[in-house]
Amino acid sequence: MFFNEVSWKEAVDISDEFLYALHQFDSTNESMLQKYQAPGFSGLGPGTLNPPVKNEDAMIMFLGDMYSINRTGELIDALLDKINQKQKTYYYASNRYKLFCREQRPAYHALSRMGPNVAHATLRKIGQEPEKENRYYMAKLLCQVLRKKFALLYLEDRQEQVTADDKLTAAQKTEALARYSEAIAAVKEMKDRVRH
What we know:
The chain has 196 residues and is mostly helical. The chain is 65% helix and 0% strand. It has 9 helices and no strands. Helix 6 (119-126) packs antiparallel against helix 7. The two termini are 41 Å apart.
C-alpha cells in the first residue's frame, strides 16, 4: 500500500536506502555469527578475543525467524506467479532512477537473487503451471540458481516422482510429465552460467 502512495523517485530512493540498511544488517549478522561460532578466538593477528554472546537465546530465536521457511515459501510462491511479468516502466540509461531487472522481469530477477532456496517451489510449480512462457522462465530460473547439470538432474527426478505418484490420475500424470519434459528440453538449450 505504501508504494502506491509515493512517486517513482521516492520509491527508488526508499528502496536504495532499504537495500543499504539490509546490507549493513547482513554484514553485522555475519560478523555476529562468526563471533558466535568462535568465542574466545580473535582470528589472525593481535586483537581482542570474541566474548561469548550475552543474549544467546534471543539471538538463536532471531536467526530462526529471519530464515523462516513459512515466510520464504509464501514470498517465493507469490513471485513465481509473476515470474513472466515484464517491467512496466522504462527509463533512459542516464536516468538515476532506472531499474535494472534481468530479462526485464522484476519477479524473475528477485527470485534469481534468492539463490537455490527457490528451487524446491519452482520444481513443484513447473509441473502445475498452465502458461508455457511462465514454465520457460521457471526452467531458466532453475538453470540460473542450480546450474545446468543440477537443474536437469532435479527435473528428471521430479519426472520419476510424478510417474511413481499413485494419487495422480493418468491425465494429470501425462500433463505434468509433458511439462517437465518441456522444461528439460528448454534447460538443455540454455547456456550454463560461468563462475569466475
